[in-house]
Amino acid sequence: xxxxxxxxxxxxxxxxxxxxxxxxxxxxxxxxxxxxxxxxxxxxxxxxxxxxxxxxxxxxxxxxxxxxxxxxxxxxxxxxxxxxxxxxxxxxxxxxxxxxxxxxxxxxxxxxxxxxxxxxxxxxxxxxxxxxxxxxxxxxxxxxxxxxxxxxxxxxxxxxxxxxxxxxxxxxxxxxxxxxxxxxxxxxxxxxxxxxxxxxxxxxxxxxxxxxxxxxxxxxxxxxxxxxxxxxxxxxxxxxxxxxxxxxxxxxxxxxxxxxxxxxxxxxxxxxxxxxxxxxxxxxxxxxxxxxxxxxxxxxxxxxxxxxxxxxxxxxxxxxxxxxxxx
Length: 327
Hints:
The protein is α/β, with parallel strands linked by helices. The chain has helices at residues 46-51, 79-85, 97-100, 107-118, 123-136, 142-145, 155-167, 185-202, 213-219, 237-242, 247-254, 296-299, and strands spanning 2-15, 18-31, 35-39, 62-69, 72-73, 90-93, 173-177, 205-210, 222-227, 230-236, 306-307, 313-314.
């Protein structure tokens, strides 16, 4: 059963130089207790897409499509109704905890604010709940750390505070936007383990936004690969990693170090070019200018998401059929 169903989501953002189509007809669903990763380079529309689900996207953006949760389209709900959903039913972990947290307030009080907004608790009960949450995400000396200010905590501890804030009211869907950015490898692994453990304990569905295919491999059940605002490949982790069908997906995977790879093959390969800025929906493959396989067919029509040989769905005129060898 799907807990969140996004259909044909588009986000158009006005700028000083014209309009930017940041998300272009994006569709995906998230099942109960499932971890779905949305992956792509910076500028692909990942963060804008999830922020727009509950009205947190750029000011004056035009958002169309459907975001179905609990039988209702969230895009048609009024701001007051959306505020009741945010934090209680669908919660966010934002990219940078240092800027997301208030530097002038102890972190425990910031988590208490979420509880005061969405839960009927006394002040003593809220304080006790904060300590419980901090312990749940592995913050040592939880009662003492609750009195600390953000600058007094390490990056990993601040991220754990953000996770505590997000799960405070037991949401059904947790959206984690680059939750391990700027963290060292050891702390990153610990944060990912916390998210998986919370999924198992609390039964939450998780939507993970990342550019790191290594993180995707560690935590996700399914993956949606985005490029220039569109979904260009989707499927189960094993299918996508073993037999990626889209050249862009293969390019992302070729940039991930493979443990035990021989030195002669250890050089990582990037993807030439950059993600284009799209002003309007284009009836063509937006990856064509960066793809060595592109031909006139790629530039003369938008390829639909269709079943590929490896078990994924791919939007490509010339999908790859061979298994990935890590190159």
